Amino acid sequence: MNTTITQTDEKTVVTLSGRLDTTNAHDFEIQIQSFFTLSSPHIILECAGLSYISSSGLRVMLILKKKVFARNGVLVLRQMRPEIREVFDMTGFSSFFTIE
Amino acid sequence: MSVVRTFSGRLSLYIMLITTAVLVIAFVVFFGYSRRIAEENAITNADNMLAVASSKIDAVLQNVETAVGNMSSLVESELPVPDSLYALTRSVLRNNQLIVGSAIAFEPDFFNDREIYFSPYSYRDKEQIRSIQLGTDTYHYHNMEWYTVAWQEKRPHWSEPYFDTGGGNMLMTTYSKPLIDRNGQVYAIFTADLSLDWLGGMVADIQPYPNSYNLLLSRTGRYMVHHQRERVLAETIFSATETMTDTTVQYIGRQMIAGRHGMAVLQNDDTLSYVFYTPIVRTGWSLGIVCPHAQVFESVEKMKTMVILVVLCGLLLLFVLSYNLIRRLTRPLRQFADAARSVARGDFIAPLPCGSSDEELRELHDSFCFMQNSLSGYIEELQQSTAIQERIESELRIARDIQMGMIPKIFPPFPERDDIDLYAELHPAKEVGGDLYDFFINDEKLYFIIGDVSGKGVPASLFMAVTRSLFRSVTTYFASPCEIIKSINASITENNDSNMFVTLFVGVLDLNSGQLDYCNAGHNPPILIMPGGSVQFLRVDPNLPVGIIANFEYHCQQIHLDRNSTLFMYTDGITEAENGEKALYGEVALLSKIKACCDIEPREMTTTVIAAVHEHSDGAEQNDDLTILDIQYRESKIEQTINRTITLFNEISEISRLAGFVECLGEELKLSPSLITNLNLVLEESVSNIILYAYPEKSEQQITVEARKMDDSLVFTITDCGMEFDPTLVDQADITLSVEERPVGGLGIFLIKKIMNEVEYRRIDGANIFTFKKKLC
Question: Does A59 touch chain B (CB under 8 A)?
Fold first, then answer.
């Protein structure tokens, strides 16, 4: 999986492409740890290139959501592919993630 | 056991037979001789008796003749006084008591002063002697026989015997002597009547045998003495025997009355008799003795019976004695026979008969001892070497079983598929060999290998086992034939102290496309049979055999196989099979054989070629292993049921291979992207769980994932040998919780259950088997 992080004024745009699975979920978790120190972070995850997410990926997503939520930040997932959306729906993640 | 079948019995019998034969010959000679002696004795005896009797009779008759002769000389002087002639006749009677009457019968008219017929006659009347004048007018004596015969013949004459009708019915005979004057004229006949009563007694005294009887015949053959008294004078020997069939008696009668002396054998009423006869010359009578034949030889017969009895008893005794004697002599032989049987049963210390003084038996005893010792030595050696041999053979048999167990031997190996037919045979020249073949299908690809290790026997077989195992393990990592061979080469060259090598041909046939990737490492080029029947050797690059140079760069080749092509692979045991003349079977012959049978199935093709090779070698010893691997790639008529398997190691990097597996599967089954993602999710969850948690000690382990499409369902089976873990028992994640309350884990099993229609876990033989099914609608 490739991750591109673009920092603008208040927003951090993370572009995801490829597969987020057990093999790289841990790497992704380390990459996003820098966000945890921000106050009121506004993070946008561009998911158009995300072809697959495993439960490990979901777990990292959940950790990120919890951290952002604890700091009154905003986490938006954008342009999610339908098959990824289906996984979010199945797991009930759709209910507390902002998906645009 | 029959006595005749034993040596002693037979020998005794032979002795008996020879003895009997000798005895019979002696017996026949002896009895022939005895009979002759008996006969001669009988003849001599009879002759003697007859001689005595005839001389006695003759003496009596001579007395009469003498008496008459003495008196007749006085007649002439007494003629002048005719009455004095009575006294002469009386003196004759006085001189001889047997004479019962005497007369001097003169010629008629001899005396002028007397009657015409003058005949003074004296006779005995009781004790008195009386004299009368015999001649009367009515009794013309000169016509009587006693008178006329003597008168005519002018010599004395004895009359035929007759019964005296006058006094006492006696048997009589009359002696007539003619008295002749000076002129030679008979002038009177002097007679003496002789009583013959004494004859019967005298003749009866001749009794050489108890049942013999005698007879006396007169000149005419009339019976004078006969044991049947009524026949006396009543019958002649001829009249009495007229009715007899045997004419011998007639002949005897003629001989007797002819005055002959002799003997004859007579058959009379089933009785054989000897007849001895002798004449009494003086009167022309004949005296005979009739002796029953049986009595003549009675003593001989008695002796014969006794001798036969004695001989029989003797033979029986001889048989019993010789049988027992020979048995006793051959007892050591029987003991040797028993000992030989014991030896045959494996008992080499069977006791032998000893102490025999016979040279032959002692020699046999020594030979037997020597044989027992040698045999027991040999058997011991043989047992030892056989045990070693058996152990080696048994080990080799086991090795062969193990080796044969390494190569697939169930044909057809893929009965569910109709796009591939495959047959292989491996015939090691010895118990174990260095040839190998192997094949399997993974992910719609047929991996196959055929190879030939340098050398034969056990070393080659070990090398073969290594190569085959390497092939199996290497193919889990590499799908390209040259990579497979390179990897095998690397492993082998690393520790190849024995400098062995193996020629290999490895192919990977994509069963969907027909693309064949292959790499030939110094192996015989396979024969490719095209659908049209064209047959040719597959073009192969000249690569080195495996095990020679590490890091050798093996080149891969590629060819597209049309459906209904056949790839015929073999080892050099086929082409280099030798016959008795050391001629090789050769590639040309193989190629033409394949051409001749290019349209038959792999199994038949393989057996045909092997039969042709055997025919070529014609019983010559197989000097190399023979292997054939024949693969036919065919048109598939049935829709494929998808069955895919992937084997993963317990490393997290394997997850990407798993993703590739699911991608391919999805592509093949034309699944929707979301279903592919879901399946990916499910498999990743399950497999990563196993990778992360099933093996706490982190040793290298394998996880098998099998995907099968059955009807409208897709079934996955994940097998691992890690810790027992039933994912179905894990608590489900509660998706209704708020983001703060949601735990970060526990999603995996939730997703599996959510996505799949059926989930099942089993623990079998230390393996976790996790199965889940997804309906495709």
Answer: yes
